[in-house]
Amino acid sequence: MTSTKQTAASPDPSRQNMNSESLNTKDMRRILTSSFIGSLIEYYDFLLYATAAAIVFSQVFFTNLGPGFAAFASFGTLAAGYLARPLGGAIFGHFGDRVGRKNVLVISMVTMGAGTTAIGLLPTTAQIGVIAPVLLILLRILQGLAVGGEWGGAMLMALEHSPSKRRGFAASFANMGGPAGAALATLAVSAATLLPQDQFLAWGWRIPFLISVVLVTVGLVIRLKIAETPLFQELQNKAEAKKIPLLEVITKNPKSLLLGVIAGTSVYSLAGVVTVWAVSHAVNEGADKTGVLNAKAAAAVVMLLVVIVSARLSDRFGRRPVMLTGVISAAVCAFPILWLVELGTVWSFAIAVMLGQGLQGVIFGPFGAFTAELFPTHMRYTGASLAYQSASTLGAGFTPAIATGLVLTAGGSPTLLGAVWILAFAAAAAAILLTREGSTRDLTTMKAGSGRT
User: Fold this and answer.
1) 232 within domain boundaries
2) Which pLDDT score is estimated for 13?
3) Where is the Major facilitator superfamily (MFS) profile domain (predicted)?
């Protein structure tokens, strides 16, 4: 006779999943799918704004400025969302560490969907005046808060359910959602650009933003079916569950946080240059807009594939060796990529963005597990989110505007931009070398401060 009650001889199935070496179980497939789809939707919404900022917003929300300054202002609103990401990571991370990963993820998805849909309905400056760009900035901040809470939770839902030797690959499903969402967002805008220019600027650009309603609905249906992570469930009866996660991260693990931020900034500075600034620059140099966007979408697919490979390699060889390979390679390729963008053709841009996104994928694949393994369970959502989102702010958030300013300062030459790029990757390499290898760590026994070198 069998019993439906859980006994000492009949352990929790979620714990069995963690002890197993396989991710190919029904529960794990559902968890990994949820992590990927949820992240895809959030980053579709968030990165859709980046594409629109590169080719649309300067013409509908900043119409009284010259082309160069309009682009700078448009990228400034882009940065506002990135500034909000660490705050979102702290807020959602606090509740994710105190009340659970799952419920917080549902709230972050609804928040993002509401902000993105509102942008799609926002009147232009010609219609309501200066209030239009003000509202655009506020909605971008709302997007930033939402995505700030999404990645950490989606990543931890996968990682904390997975077997220890597959953590890198499991965590990468949240990272895969980024390039997949970017590809979907770029293709949506690319399709809209097939409209006549006046119709595209009048209403066509809004369609990709309004599609968010459908995507969020699908994502919620999937997300509501998954269970809380076993590591968080174990935490509930321990004293650490009552502590304030943000204070714990700042006072007990500041070095881990700082190293994680510096390492991650390399990923996002690369993204800001090749997927935002380069798009605007190539289009302004005369490259076909639709062709540039299609190349960017193809590059996102390349990045997704590289993320899969690099994450799996990190489970075999460690996070640090794989990430260092990507960081060093990206520094070496800085000037070749910028030279290709400068040529101003679709094909040269395509090669540049595919190379850049591929190198980004090498670093990005292990990065979810890399940050998670820096912090113990009771502060992991907050710590990983703060590291990741702060890196995104310093990297992608400011890079397009900084890149524009550096090129203007250098009289149109990318020399200064390339030099700053190389310095950022040198700092990232040093940070990675100063961290402890996390792939062999036992997450169930980590203590505060144990992420230090």
Assistant:
1) no
2) 42
3) 31-436
Nearest to 436 by CA among 308, 309, 253: 253
Q: Are 148 and 86 in contact (CB under 8 A)?
A: yes
Rounded average pLDDT over 36-58: 82
Cβ burial, residue 234 (10 Å; 0-12/13-18/19+): middle
pLDDT at residue number 59: 79
Q: Which CATH number do you get for residue 102?
A: 1.20.1250.20
C-alpha 244, offset from chain centre: 25
- The DSSP code for 393 is I
**293 found inside a domain:** yes
In a domain, 442, yes or no: no
State residue 202's pLDDT score: 87
Those residues whose C-beta lies under 8 Å from the C-beta of residue 190, and which sit 6 or more positions away, are 290, 293, 294, 297
Which pLDDT does position 392 carry in this prediction? 83
Q: Look up the pTM and report it.
A: 0.78
Number of domains in the chain: 1
| Average pLDDT of the chain, as a whole number | 83
All residues at 6 or more sequence positions from 266 whose CB lies less than 8 Å from its CB, including other chains: 327, 330, 363, 395, 424, 425, 427, 428
Predicted confidence band of residue 161 (pLDDT cuts 50, 70, 90): confident
Q: What angle do CA 327, 273, 109 make, to 5 degrees?
A: 90
The answer to whether residue 212 is domain-embedded is: yes
**E strands, 287-356, where?**
none
Residue 163 in 3-state DSSP? coil
Q: Which domain holds residue 99?
A: 23-227+237-434
Q: What sign results for the dihedral spanned by CA atoms 410, 413, 414, 418? A: negative
The pLDDT of 336-358, averaged and rounded, is 92
